[in-house]
């Protein structure tokens, strides 16, 4: 048997020993130890990244899902943090939902992954805003605006919703490197989404884009409300001056 074939057989057995033949001339005990080390390493990062999701399953049910992921995981990125992204991708694109999976499973997994992503994301130095109405604006790279069907920020073993209830959130990393969230109304969500999608908007341009969605507010009312909101977000480091490139 060629080395490449032996290598493929070895990897296939480590992924799914119940479905693949044991490589020849390799002791069973050595295979078991090696597989256990690899599996525990990968599953340890998944458990650390998705603690709330893990807490909603029995140990046996959670291990079953980890085994399914381990069998599919290709480890094409050298960074350990990418394991969480791979697990989320697995749930979104390869995993078949089971009857005992909560209806909010995918949204909760995304929310927990986003918390980790923001906690470890690198951002360039930013320029503070000195004149909100004159400088071009952008949302911080350490912030993300999200709309979920379920209130993922409240889910725990004691609170597991079965019916959708929309949740609009700003998830961000504060100056002390703590990841936090702010519950938003639809208007504030729209305002921040525009800044996120179109960095470099001026205050006047932002108001002009938002205005058609709130015809009940005149320009002065909308401008005053947006100014108060954005001033608060500037103080929190969530909105800052636009930097090209």
Automatic annotation (TrEMBL):
Q: Which Pfam families match?
A: DUF2063, NGO1945_C
Start and end of every Putative DNA-binding domain? Answer: 5-91
Database matches in InterPro entries: DUF2063, DUF2063_N_sf, NGO1945-like_C
Domain NGO1945-like C-terminal residue range list: 145-233
Q: Hey, what's the signal peptide range on this chain?
A: none
Q: Which domain of life is it from?
A: Bacteria
Specify the protein name: DNA-binding domain-containing protein
In its UniProt entry, the species of origin is given as Rheinheimera soli
